[in-house]
Amino acid sequence: MRKLTYFVACSIDGFIGDPNGDASSMMRYVNEEFLEFLKTQYPETVSAEGRAALNFHDAENQQFDTVIQGRGSYQVGLDAGTTSPYGHLREYVASRSLGTSPDPNVHLITGDLVGAVRALKAEDGDLGIWLCGGSQLAGQLLDEVDELVIKTYPQVYGKGMPMFGTDFAVTDFTLDSVRTFDNGVLVRKYSRAR
Ligand SMILES: NC(=O)c1ccc[n+]([C@@H]2O[C@H](COP(=O)([O-])OP(=O)(O)OC[C@H]3O[C@@H](n4cnc5c(N)ncnc54)[C@H](OP(=O)(O)O)[C@@H]3O)[C@@H](O)[C@H]2O)c1
Questions:
Q1: pTM for the whole thing?
Q2: Buried b / exposed e across 64-95, counting CB within 10 Å, b at 16+?
Q3: Which of 103, 106, 165, 184 could form a disulfide with 135 if both were Cys (CB 3.0 to 4.6 A apart)?
Q4: pLDDT at 194
Q5: CATH number of 4-192
């Protein structure tokens, strides 16, 4: 059984972006130390464009071989002219409105989201599945999430897009590790308490 990991960036108060989902204010914390962490441990979570700019376009995938995102999250790349932001992974995008996939590497999930994710998790393989977001998708997939990797940037947003777009419900996770960075960024890893 492969793991579904929600690897996500958030503010101290748990928002993944401003009310529209924009998290660009967090980028100022991506310094040399943090980039080294990403490059060595999670290189596949950096977009193809970012990997090319930072000279590690050929880095081997370390944790994931598949990414799943909602159309809202995918739209950010589309608006910037990128149809396959993570071409080094198998890309799945949940959308009922796109109709046909804009890119041969991108597979659309148009219905039975949970069933599609369970089928991916049931595949053989050493690497896992990255749930990229956004909020709506993560909310629907909360019951399927096996692991959380939360990059917390030292900023308070006050208001914004929640990590999980769900109704109130308590779900327990177990803390596995915390890594701190000199600039105040934290990366916490949690496993689902089942
Ligand atoms: N901080 C971070 O690490 C991080 C990570 C990822 C994303 N984000 C931000 O999150 C924002 C997007 O989040 P969001 O909550 O607005 O949108 P989202 O969850 O990315 O996507 C929602 C869309 O997914 C499709 N969808 C949802 N449920 C579906 C289902 N059951 N079956 C088929 N399609 C389904 C629908 O697309 P259609 O309308 O096409 O049907 C829906 O509009 C972006 O601004 C992005 O920047 C932040």
A1: 0.98
A2: bbbbbbbbbbbbbbeeeebebbbbbbbbbbbb
A3: 165
A4: 76
A5: 3.40.430.10
